[in-house]
Amino acid sequence: MSDPVRQISAIIRREKSFLVLTHYRPDGDAVGSQLALVLWLKKLGKRVAAWNDDPVPAKFRFLPGAHLIRPPPAKPQRFDVVISIDSSTWQRVGTAAQKIAARKHLLNLDHHVSNERFGDLNWIVPAAPASGQIAYDLIRRAGGKLSRDMATCLFVAISTDTGSFSYANTTADCLRVAAELVETGLDVGAISHHVYESYPYARLHLLRLVLADLKLAHHNRIAYYWITREMFEESRAKREDTEGVIDYARSIDGVVVAVLFEELAEPGKVRISLRSKHRRVDANAIARVFDGGGHKEAAGARLTGRPADVERRVLRAVRAELRAAGL
After folding, report:
1. Nearest 5 degrees, angle CA 123-CA 125-CA 130?
2. pTM over 0.90
3. Segments forming the whole domain that contains residue 27
4. End-to-end Cα distance, the chain
5. Do the beta carbons of residue 76 and residue 101 sit within 8 Å?
6. Do 52 and 191 share a domain, yes or no?
7. Considering 180, 196, 212, which residue would you say is the last residue of a domain?
8. pLDDT by 10s per residue, the chain, length 327
9. N or C: which end of the chain has fewer CB within 10 A?
10. Residues 158 and 234 occupy one common structural domain
11. Number of structural domains the chain divides into
């Protein structure tokens, strides 16, 4: 079997114009991975664009090159190469897909086990704790030298997707990578301040409303709560402020699965986030019931229906997974 990294590296050396994409509602791994690739390609002298339907979340706007991520343009554009990173499906890149007039190659780089292999060339590494580590491996194996700006983006990508190196997906290899990134001269304290200690007050107001709605089920092994449209209106929080809210339910002693239900702006649409703390309980398997996906420890999906019906369907699937695991 041919090495996808060698093929990807050859394409990057040969071609001139690039578009780098990631999923809408980007998290730290998505933004950090996307920006690291953009900075590297620019360093190679390539013409590079980076698009996203949603703006870079406020806490990641300190990242070098964050201003380069822009909304898809009104008029479709041509590129030699389109790179998708950290997006498990082509649909998750949003409207950017319709703004590509033509391209020679679609490269799909990701670490989600549920990735649909939609690229002309797919490099999917489910064992990688973050897409940031895949971006790091590509840059390194292609002979690239890491700048401090690139290292900053990669450190944020890996740190956020491993829960600041605390989740079960944290590996010895990713810690070695993190150490190398720090050695480029990173100010870890400053990075942590931006990412973990700069929340707006509106998020805390939202958190207060959400935690007041916390419920337990299935012998206290399931913790779940809702973020309703009314909560967004009362708190004046943004959609990006929901990142990490599920971790409060996940942190409860005895809880095996945490579920966050979020009412979307479109009536009848609900976004669910799932977290598993047990090695026999697969969050991705639960999400796949609803055409979602992700990882064994963390996954999500979007559903249509009345809130009460959505809650009932999702909790039924979670209970089934717990029973299958003997819990």
Report:
1. 115
2. yes
3. 4-196
4. 41
5. yes
6. yes
7. 196
8. 578 999 999 999 999 999 999 999 999 999 999 999 999 999 999 999 999 999 999 999 999 999 999 999 999 999 999 999 999 999 999 999 999 999 999 999 999 999 999 999 999 999 999 999 999 999 999 999 999 999 999 999 999 999 999 988 999 999 999 999 999 999 999 999 999 999 999 999 999 999 999 999 999 999 999 999 999 999 999 999 998 999 999 999 999 999 999 999 999 999 999 999 999 999 999 999 999 998 899 999 999 999 999 999 999 999 999 999 999
9. N
10. no
11. 2
